[in-house]
Design a protein that fits this description.
The structure is a homodimer. By secondary structure, the first copy, chain A, is an alpha/beta fold. In chain A, 36% of the residues lie in helices and 14% in strands. Chain A has one domain: Class I glutamine amidotransferase (GATase) domain (Rossmann fold). In chain A, β1, α2 and β2 form a beta-alpha-beta unit.
Chain lengths: 271, 271
């Protein structure tokens, strides 16, 4: 469990002049906290969200850290990096992260249940009975059920996307239909309490969307400024709509096997 | 050391029809690799870069993972997550990552030396004698000396930015002048072999810039499409030029102490 204590300490200083009911780290109303910020009457600087971020071998680490870059700014929230055991988990590109909760120790009632994507590791997690059971159980009660990239395949396989609009990495978005979802082409798709992001780097846009949803727009904008999220990619090839043909062709080819396996997963799920 | 073997396996399938001299995982020319991709004569699918990414307690993990999201796509490259020891390193917001190299085992001659930023942890790393010695030594020979966010304070403290244009997180960009650098307001600043990114999420733009520098534009665009980097932030508050006043004021206040300490670091360095 990460209670973001360093950020809390920093942000308590911040919240002092602005919040109308800010609490200190022990949950007590702190002195000098009765000022109001006239322009932002709805800013809730402190919260108590319980956020579970699934980890599994072969996950794409940016799918996890992009959302965490934003969600990690939630003062008062607790973030659980949840895996089958507390053993370190290695991503598809070799980044090894230590979980701080297991399927057994993760709180039962979550504000946000989140899963990152990947390729072969994601398909393995999607068919793993323990992972499916965990996602289905926590997803049944979580206030928000969410994913980035091909993580939506895990949500789908756990039966959490039936009848919901959702998105995924561009290569497998269409596969979501096999899980009863309505594939939707957008950077972030919200349908009731399901919030899904597109591929990998969409986790930043997803994270900002969640901050506004969990707190408010000003809170989200503060985290956007702190993380200097003012993107300026030197090229314009980040989408199948804008990438040149000589970029699209090899990337589509590279993902052919993964797409086939994803389609097989959805077909097996239906059967 | 991470040799991105999974990605290599995937990308070897990709490179087959396009590369003129692609090598397999053992460095042997693979069969069927003699086709040329007429539109991309300069794409070098395989390389042999040695990339060191510094890790230290209190680093901002997105500063590390954003660049890695792009650099991790370099087929044939080796990425070293370097720390003082092989003990797991915990970020400012509680993400724990395992290094795969130490100051002693990291290769002496690097293609890219990189450091992430943070706040108090960054200032501690910048004054740590072992870290400074490592950065100064590898930086003296590295083909590229690079950073994202306040990581440029570490480069500056190691004497690596004297006379170079450079950038940093918006809050401490001006501090770089104290290290003899020329603070420059841009998302990514390249001056000869120094490449520095602005705050946190600028690591993605930095990473793409490095991919084009190390390989070529098409290679970078392929990684951009694979990571679906087609940003669409729901708000426009990611820069001091665009954020509303009620967002700028609390964030400036929140960082006041960090800015003061950074200025003191630069002053001590000069003395």
């Amino acid at each position: 469990m990460t209670d973001i204590s360093r950020r809390q300490a920093l942000l308590l200083a911040l919240s002092a002049p602005f919040a109308s009911c800010a609490l200190d780290a022990d949950g007590q109303q702190a002195p000098g906290m009765n000022h109001k910020m006239p322009d932002t009457p709805n800013v809730h600087w402190m919260g108590d969200e319980q956020i579970a971020m699934l980890m599994y071998p072969g996950m794409t680490v940016m799918d996890l850290i992009g959302p965490h870059c934003m969600l990690g700014g939630l003062m008062g929230a607790k973030i659980f990096f949840v895996a089958k055991s507390l053993d370190p988990v290695t991503s598809d590109a070799g980044v090894t992260i230590t979980p701080n909760a297991t399927f057994g120790t993760c709180p039962r009632d979550l504000t946000v249940l989140f899963t990152p994507g990947g390729t072969d590791g994601t398909l393995a997690a999607a068919v793993d009975p323990d992972t499916r059971a965990f996602m289905a159980d926590r997803g049944a009660r979580a206030k928000y059920v969410t994913s980035v990239c091909s993580g939506s395949l895990i949500l789908g396989a756990a039966g959490l996307l039936k009848g919901y609009k959702a998105t995924s990495h561009w290569s497998v978005r269409h596969v979501l239909a096999g899980f009863g979802a309505i594939p939707t082409d957008a950077r972030v798709v919200q349908d009731r309490n399901r919030v899904t992001g597109a591929g990998v780097t969409a986790g930043l846009d997803f994270g900002l969307t969640m901050l506004a949803e969990l707190r408010d727009r000003t809170y989200a904008e503060c985290c956007q400024l702190m993380s200097e999220y003012d993107p300026d990619p030197p090229f314009n090839a980040g989408s199948m709509k804008t990438a040149p043909a000589e970029v699209k062709a090899p990337m589509v080819q590279m993902l052919t096997e993964f797409v086939k396996k994803s389609e097989a997963l959805a077909a097996a799920n239906k059967a």
